[in-house]
Structures are given as structure tokens and as C-alpha cells.
Amino acid sequence: MTDDTPPNDTPNNPPPAAGTPEAPTRCGLVAVVGAPNAGKSTLVNRLAGSKVSIVSPKPQTTRFRIRAVVMQDRTQIVLTDTPGIFAPRRRLDRAMVAAAWEGAQDADVALLIVDARAGMTEAVESIISVLKRSKVPIWLVLNKSDLIDTKRLLPLTATLNEQLSFEETFMISAEKGDGLDRLMTALAARLPYGPWLFPEDELSDLPERMLAAEIVREQILRQTHEEVPHHATVETEQWQERRDGSVRIDCTIYVGRATQKAILIGDGGSKVKEIGRRARAELEKLLERRVHLFLNVKERQGWDEERARLRAIGLDDAG
Ligand SMILES: Nc1nc2c(ncn2[C@@H]2O[C@H](COP(=O)(O)OP(=O)(O)OP(=O)(O)O)[C@@H](O)[C@H]2O)c(=O)[nH]1
Ligand SMILES: [Mg+2]
């Protein structure tokens, strides 16, 4: 999608003025990439106006690509949230990083999200060194501007632009919503003319079963610490519609070790109960119906090297 001329743009058939009902449509793919914890998913959720991707204070929260469809006047902006890019070790990590790079490859524009407070880190430097070779136009988006003195943003922009000449630079706070209108307007104007790829009301491509598993994983990320969150995966085993309009969802949480299982379950089951309680409340909001959520914790050594486990969360086994 690189055609930047409006359809039927001939002297006899000029395009209607923008804003009129017949104005030509635009549509394009925008990849959101960056180091773990930069705020990519927060940004995608903000722009989508709804939670499509889970967020946590811990790095490596997002594990697979998630698409969000955002309408801006006559432009359909198809955002792809991607896992943070870091030096991978496990098969899981390699598959996550591969998914991120694949997301960037066929985009019309890639947004490099940088945590402005963390600044130029080794992770950012190594991502830029790969992006340099890409043909995709890259925009720099400095995020978390609410956390630092704006005076520090300009030198950081200069340092980053020395490494790669970004087509555009934006300073935003995804959390507070600052600078997002400008970013959206610029994106809409940058995308090529063409028909919309998705129905206007298709917000995300995440199936409900995976959404349920992700919401449980978000609570694990928020309520457990150290090695537990990154050694846990969640799969929805059963989804049963009930006659009263509610749904029963059964999820299995896999962890690598018995000690991790013990932490997740907690004293007398208190931890897993709390994870379930909060995840259920969140799911009821998102699904707009009553939810009965059942969680089962299983020890499964080496799940993060198992192809079947990765496929279950939408990662292919190329790694
Ligand atoms: N203060 C502040 N915090 C932010 C902002 N954007 C994101 N955060 C916080 O940064 C943390 C990470 O946010 P995520 O959106 O999960 O980051 P991510 O880049 O998707 O992370 P990965 O999925 O791990 O790659 C969360 O605690 C967010 O609340 C911002 O503009 N300001
Ligand atoms: Mg994320």
C-alpha cells in the first residue's frame, strides 16, 4: 500500500474535497514497536479508545501481535501492537521478538516508542540499528513526557535523530493522552488512499477466548513478582455459554516450577482467588455480561520451549 494518489484523480474527475461524504478513503498499517515497557500497549489502547492489549509495569507484558482498528475521519488506521524487542533467550522470547519484527515489516509507517525517562538505552540503540536497514518510514514517538522535564526531551530527540533520521518526531504521554491528537492527525494524513481493510466496528482481532486468557495473565503480572509472571502462561480451556446469558470460562495457568505454583496459589488459595476475582471483574466489563471464571494452576516444566504452548497463544514455532 504505497499508492499516494487519490483514486480517479484526473482533470475530469477531481477527488471531492476532504470532509465531504464522498471524500476518498485512506487506509494503512501502523506498527507500534520499541523496547519492553516503553508504553506501546498503553498507546494502542488509548488510540483505540478501549482495552485491546494488556498493560503492566513489568517489561515483556505483550507476547504476540494484536491489531486495533481506529477510524480517524475517512482514514482507517490499522495499528499493530507488538511485543517489546529485547535480546531473546528462550524459545518463547525468540518467538515474541520475531513477532515484533514481522509486525514492522509490512507496515506503511512504524512508530518507534521510546520511554523518554529511560532515554537512550542499549535496547533502544540495538532496535535502531535494525530499523536503519528497514525501508519502512519510521516515526519517533517519545512517550511518558509527563514523567520528565520537557527541557530534557529536545537533547534526547537530537541524540536519537543522530542514530537514525526519523521522518517525524512526536512527544506524547500515552497515559495522560497528551500529544495524541497531533499524532493521529499526522498518521491519518500519511497513510495511502485506498479502501478500508476492516469493518468500521471491528476494533481488534483478539478472539474472546484469548482475551480472557490475557486478562488473567495481566492480573498475574500485576499481583506476582520476580520470576513468576514471566514463567506463567494462560490458556482458555472451556467457554460455555449459559442459558441465563452468562458465560463460564475455564482457564489453565501453566508455570515452570512447583515453587512458582505455590506462590501463584498462595496461602489457602488466596493469591489465585484474588487474581480470579479481579480478572473476572475486568472481563465482565469488557464482555458486558456476567462471567464465572475458574482458574486451574498446573506445573509444566519447560512450557516456554514447547511449540504447542506457544501456538496456543498465537505465536508460531519458527524459533
Ligand atoms: N507515567 C506514564 N506511564 C506510562 C505512560 N505510558 C505507559 N506507561 C506505563 O508504563 C508501563 C508499561 O506500559 P505498557 O503499555 O505495558 O508498555 P509496553 O511497551 O506495551 O510493554 P511490553 O508489552 O512489555 O513491551 C505501565 O505501567 C504503564 O502504565 C505514560 O505516558 N506516562
Ligand atoms: Mg505491551
From TrEMBL:
Region described as G3: spans on this chain: 81-84
Cellular component GO terms, alphabetical: cytosol; plasma membrane
Alphabetized Pfam families for the sequence: KH_2, MMR_HSR1
Start and end residues of each stretch annotated as G2: 60-64
Renumbered residue ranges of the record's region G1: 34-41
Subcellular location: Cytoplasm; Cell membrane
Binding site for GTP: 34-41, 81-85, 143-146
Task performed by this protein: An essential GTPase that binds both GDP and GTP, with rapid nucleotide exchange. Plays a role in 16S rRNA processing and 30S ribosomal subunit biogenesis and possibly also in cell cycle regulation and energy metabolism.
Subunit structure: Monomer.
Name this protein carries in UniProt: GTPase Era
Organism, scientific name: Teichococcus aestuarii
